[in-house]
Design brief:
The chain is built from 7 helices and 3 strands; from the N terminus they run ααβααββααα. It has helices spanning 10-29, 38-45, 52-59, 63-75, 97-106, 109-116, 122-141; strands spanning 50-51, 79-84, 87-95. The protein is globular, with a radius of gyration of 18 Å.
Length: 149
């Protein structure tokens, strides 16, 4: 396979860029003892307590994976787990004041843009955003396979 990115399939291009951004984003989030998996979970909890199942569904991961993510967030003092008043068989995950502050600090728009737009001018960033929004919308419109649910 060629080392010239112009010869790569689109999927390889996307994967290569996404992997680099994920590594850079994780390094940025490490400032708060977070990673690309824990930060979205905190953001989902900003609207109120959720079960691990609900957080997992919103993040597109398994409940087992979310259990590990929530355990790490709990060790950092960002969330608590208590009995769910809606269903005593489940545990509700609630963001703490510290978790709320950290989630907002880590979610600032500019660092994320700087990490993802490196090497692009303003017009290219806008074109990229339009393409990515179209791709996200197309993915959401497609029915999910049982393996993804």
């Amino acid at each position: 396979m060629s080392e010239d990115p112009r010869q790569w399939p689109t999927g390889r291009l996307l994967f290569s860029v996404a992997r680099r951004i994920e590594q850079d984003w994780n390094a940025h989030l490490a400032t708060w003892d977070l990673n690309h998996a824990g930060h979205p979970a905190l953001l989902h909890l900003m609207g109120g307590p959720l079960t691990q199942r609900e957080i997992a569904a919103r993040n597109g991961v398994t409940e087992q994976t979310m259990s590990r993510i929530v355990a790490r967030l709990e060790r950092s003092g960002y969330v608590t787990r208590d009995d769910d008043p809606r269903d005593r068989r489940r545990r509700a995950v609630t963001i703490t004041d510290l978790g709320r502050r950290v989630a907002l600090e880590a979610a600032q728009f500019q660092p994320a843009e700087d990490l993802t737009a490196r090497g692009l001018d303003e017009d290219q960033v806008e074109a990229l955003r339009e393409l990515l929004v179209a791709m996200v919308r197309a993915q959401r419109a497609e029915p999910r396979s049982p393996a993804e649910q």
